[in-house]
Amino acid sequence: MKKTLFVLLLSMVMILSFTACGSDQVEGDSEAEDSKQVSILTPYLSSVTTNEMVETMKGGMEEKGWVVNVVDTKGDFAQLASRMEDVVSSQADAIVLVSTDPNQVKTQIEKAAEANIPVFGCDSGFIDGMTVNATSDNAAMSEMITQYLFDAMGGKGKLVVLSHRPHPGVLLRTETLDAMLKEYPEIQVVTEQHVEVPGPIENSRKVMESLILANSEPGSITAVWCGWDEPAIGVSQALADAGRNEVLVTGIDGNSQAVEMIQSDSTLKATVAQNFTGMAEIVITEIEKSFNGEEIETGNQYAPANLITKE
After folding, report:
1. Taking the model in full, what pTM does it have?
2. Do 92 and 117 contact (CB within 8 A), yes or no?
3. The CATH classification of domain 138-273, taken from the options 3.40.50.2300, 2.102.10.10, 3.50.50.60, 3.30.70.330
4. Residues with Cβ < 8 Å from 291, sequence gap 6 or more?
5. pLDDT in tens, 39-57
6. Are the C-beta atoms of residues 139 and 176 closer than 8 Å to each other?
7. How does pLDDT run across 70-94, given as a tens digit for each residue?
């Protein structure tokens, strides 16, 4: 009798235990299902600064309990469009485009709007259908660094330009340079070269090595204007190897390696430091407002930037 009673009690304990475990599992699954799903898409994750923004956003979003999916298409915009369609179909709660020209995925942004999925940008452009793009004032940054370089050149000389116009921020910086050059007739643009991404440092180094061979005479190149820091790093490496220390180089972004080179008396003389952490925080704040149903002022929101030189 006692043995039978013990078996019955043991069975009841096991049943209650299994029931509790099952209840915990269902609750856990329910919490996972209730978590907000955010997809971050970029074609440039190999870029130091793009990666910094993505990691900052991912960490901040996960702290809020959101589930984050990062998609890197490695410079392939057709793949970016395709993957964004997948994200829209999966009914993500929000989409973030990082370092991306939104015109390249205009149709997909429209589809997201139709599905009531807000699309945010981080260091991207802004077009109708998006909610907010957090960025720097690229025109102001370009004006700042370009004026510094033109002053350092004494308002005259021969200039090489390295750019990547498919990127909306770099495009605006380059267009600002184009406009300012009209006020400096004694500055001659020797050439503008497109920088390949991924691999901008190595690509720019090779481009500069070829330009040095084609312009070997002193004074044939006075300065090199780079649309962002990674090309400036590659250019400075090539100039150092060739002993062309008289050439001035500038970049934009505030990349830590670029700042170190500026402080070590390399040919890289200045950059403008963007606030990438600030951009990521803006995006997180605005997405949270969206999730909470709060009113959002659409358009570009700017994080401040500042000029960095050795002085």
Report:
1. 0.73
2. yes
3. 3.40.50.2300
4. 36, 93, 94
5. 999 999 998 889 999 999 9
6. yes
7. 999 999 999 999 999 999 999 999 9
